[in-house]
Design brief:
This protein has a single domain, classed as Growth Hormone, Chain: A. 78% of the residues lie in helices and 0% in strands. The two termini are 21 Å apart.
Length: 439
């Protein structure tokens, strides 16, 4: 699966002595980055498990909770992501990831030391700033370790860290919520990342830019942020895939951050029961969707590049009826079964958008392009998604009472139709845009 990697090479210059490495080493790097992404989402997602206890202790509304789990994290995550990605397009991506991992793990532990809503919001901002150093340099590294025809599969494996990390947060968080206070969870789940940062720093090697395309001998000029943004905006397919991904991430993050509360409030399940089921649904279902999406896109895309966007457009539409049953079913078991199918299908798009974002970018734009993509879809999805659900909970409460969350999530689910529409539009312009692209 691997192409080549650099040994003993000064990062970023694309020169120097280069030696061949085995697929085993490239897969090891992918495995380490996958673990980093798992920790990333454990530390990000654990707060959603403790919405109830935190809301009760700090006497806050669902709208304020939505700000805490949404914009307090996402706004600074996305803002910090741009300058960090610019750094990653010039510097040592491995070291940047290690530094970011250290920062967000320490901030996660610090969440357990807070004593009011404002303190917790400020520390969550710190988590967001640290996590901004995760995916953009990781996407760029993976793109240098894996050739374009294998890239969607590799990025699909990496992307499944979202679901494995969220699953572990639900599973471990459910147990901790049932047996300990919420602060203990942040101490327990935040500390392992500090050790993993050392693994990243001392075992992952930095390849030259463009290594998988065998383009390391090029004189590659670093683009400015403005040049990168203008280049991407000039590509119709890129604009359409970003708009589509934003709509689907609005739906996805709303469900991800409020799903635990949904089953507690609407179906009255215990924290351990919810955590166990959510771990299976998000961990297995989400991972399967991301992996299948990457593998199918690689296979179908070799026949016709339009399938990189046509596939997620079709599958997203198929997913929506399963989502409606998941939210409206009276039986918790029926709801969970349809939630599994909905979550698997609605995450097929993830590896394709990150693959195309890399494939449509020039070599020295890749980390910045990743940060721009994440900036947009995280402001809309991770920021607005949880906030909109919390706001709608408070608005719908007068009419629906404890079941308001059911209809808040249902409102967001309808945005999936718009996501599928823009993916379909992107599929029509994609072959031409890829043909015009020059590395």
């Amino acid at each position: 699966m691997a192409e080549r990697a650099d040994a003993g090479h000064e990062p970023g210059d694309g020169a120097g002595e280069v030696e061949e490495v085995s697929p085993r080493e490239a897969n090891y790097v992918l495995g380490v980055l996958f673990l980093v992404y798992v920790v990333n989402f454990i530390d990000r997602q654990v707060l959603s498990v403790f919405i109830g206890p935190i809301k009760e202790e700090f006497a806050i509304s669902d709208t304020e909770v939505g700000l805490l789990v949404g914009f307090a994290f996402a706004l600074f995550y996305t803002i910090a992501g741009i300058p960090i990605a610019r750094w990653a397009d010039r510097g040592n991506r491995r070291s940047i990831i290690a530094i970011g991992l250290t920062v967000w793990s320490a901030m996660t532990v610090a969440c357990g030391l807070t004593r009011n809503f404002a303190q917790l919001a400020l520390v969550r901002i710190g988590v967001g700033v640290g996590e901004a150093a995760g995916s953009p340099p990781a996407h760029s590294l993976i793109s240098d370790y894996f050739a374009p025809q294998r890239r969607a599969t590799a990025l699909g494996i990496y992307a499944s860290g979202v679901y494995v990390g969220s699953a572990l947060a639900y599973l471990g968080g459910g147990y901790l919520r049932a047996n300990f206070d919420w602060r203990t969870a942040f101490f327990v789940l935040g500390a392992p990342g500090l050790l993993l940062a050392l693994v990243v720093r001392f075992t992952v090697r930095e390849p030259p830019r463009g290594y998988s395309e065998r383009a390391t001998g090029q004189a590659v000029q670093t683009s400015t942020f403005g040049e990168t943004l203008r280049y991407l905006l000039s590509c119709r397919s890129w604009v359409r895939l970003v708009v589509g991904a934003s709509f689907i991430s609005l739906m996805g993050y709303g469900v991800l951050m409020w799903g635990f509360e949904f089953y507690g409030r609407v179906h009255g399940l215990s924290p351990i029961e919810i955590g166990s089921w959510m771990a299976v649904i998000v961990g297995i279902g989400g991972s399967a969707g991301a992996y299948l999406g990457g593998a199918l896109a690689d296979r179908l895309g070799q026949r016709d590049p339009a399938w990189y966007m046509r596939l997620p457009a079709i599958v997203t539409l198929i997913a929506l009826p399963f989502g409606f049953v998941f939210l409206l079913a009276d039986s918790s078991r029926v709801s969970m079964l349809f939630f599994f199918a909905f979550y698997l299908l609605s995450n097929v798009y993830v590896p394709t958008i990150h693959t195309l974002n890399q494939n449509l970018s020039k070599l020295r734009m890749r980390a910045t392009a990743s940060a721009i993509l994440l900036f947009i879809i995280n402001i809309v999805g991770a920021g607005a998604g949880p906030f909109v659900v919390g706001f709608l909970n408070d608005q719908y409460a007068a009419h629906f009472g404890g079941e308001a969350i059911r209809y808040s999530l249902l409102t967001l689910a309808t945005t999936g139709v718009l996501g599928a529409f823009f993916f379909h539009r992107a599929s029509r312009s994609l072959p031409g845009d890829l043909a015009r692209h020059e590395v």
